[in-house]
Q: What sequence folds into this?
């Protein structure tokens, strides 16, 4: 067993040493604002512009190589774009032909998915930027996210329903949040490491939905106007509060703090998504796990 563990550690060290720095979670978070700007925020709260001059950006996400993807609207049907920003700051058009891509997320096979509120569809976008319809979702699809089984969940704004699309393409209503305390519509959606869904609305309430469909009110005092949400590497939920120009942070038990304030017109938030093997390595370092301290030792670099 000792030799097996050491072999794993050696592999982790080697992979982490050669892995692009942008693929390693650094504690930075990224936000997009409706003034057309993407910013990086350090753990100390230092805001650094990454890209400017975007057209009505709505959402952003990152791939494992540190590229940032931003959905933009231009006010005309089928002319909206997805922009890609490389780690060195190069901005280019990644995909076109959408109408109002409200949210974007990467699927388990590396394709990018976009919910289009006007077309009432979810589109799949290949690594080459080819856009194809994936499924139709009624009632203004908004926030989207995947669980670990590859199921796609879509929050529908006007019906307060959350739809589930299985890997084989079956579409159905997962839960209906109508009548839940504080939930008047569905907006942002995020999935935690245990496949629980978190759905917010503009009234600043957040519902938690277990994989079996049990609904509880996670928080109803989380701000003035919530929009995009994501989870950080520590498992805390980050939620944009556009009304307060802040980023709210919730622990797993729902305790609220506001680590970042005074950020104008923010709309969505994202954190780097590392490759899984890099995530194991970094998680071990960050948590100072016993396998790192007592068994792996120090690499000879």
A:
């Amino acid at each position: 067993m000792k030799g097996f563990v050491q072999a794993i550690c050696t592999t982790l060290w080697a992979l982490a040493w050669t892995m692009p720095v942008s693929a390693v979670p650094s504690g930075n978070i990224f936000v997009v604002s409706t003034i057309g700007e993407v910013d990086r925020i350090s753990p100390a709260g230092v805001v650094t512009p990454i890209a400017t001059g975007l057209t009505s950006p709505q959402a952003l996400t990152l791939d494992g190589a540190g590229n940032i993807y931003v959905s933009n609207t231009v006010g005309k049907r089928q002319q909206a774009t997805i922009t890609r920003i490389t780690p060195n700051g190069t901005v280019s058009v990644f995909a076109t032909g959408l109408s109002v891509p409200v949210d974007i997320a990467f699927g388990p096979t590396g394709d990018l998915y976009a919910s289009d509120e006007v077309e009432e569809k979810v589109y799949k976008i290949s690594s080459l930027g080819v856009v194809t319809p994936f499924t139709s979702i009624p009632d203004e699809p908004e926030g989207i996210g995947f669980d670990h089984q590859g199921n796609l969940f879509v929050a529908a704004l006007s019906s307060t329903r959350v739809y589930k699309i299985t890997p084989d393409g079956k579409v159905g209503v997962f839960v209906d949040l109508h009548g839940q305390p504080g939930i008047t519509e569905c907006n942002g959606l995020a999935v935690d490491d245990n496949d629980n869904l978190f759905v917010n609305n503009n009234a600043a309430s957040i519902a938690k939905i277990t994989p079996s469909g049990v609904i509880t009110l996670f928080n109803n005092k989380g701000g003035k106007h919530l929009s995009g949400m994501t989870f950080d590497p520590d498992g805390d939920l980050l939620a944009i509060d556009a009304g307060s120009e802040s980023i709210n942070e919730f622990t797993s038990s729902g305790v609220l703090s506001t680590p970042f304030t005074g950020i104008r017109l923010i709309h969505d938030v994202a954190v780097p998504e590392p490759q899984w093997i890099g995530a194991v390595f970094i998680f071990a370092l960050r948590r100072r796990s016993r396998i790192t301290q007592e068994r792996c030792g120090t690499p000879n670099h």
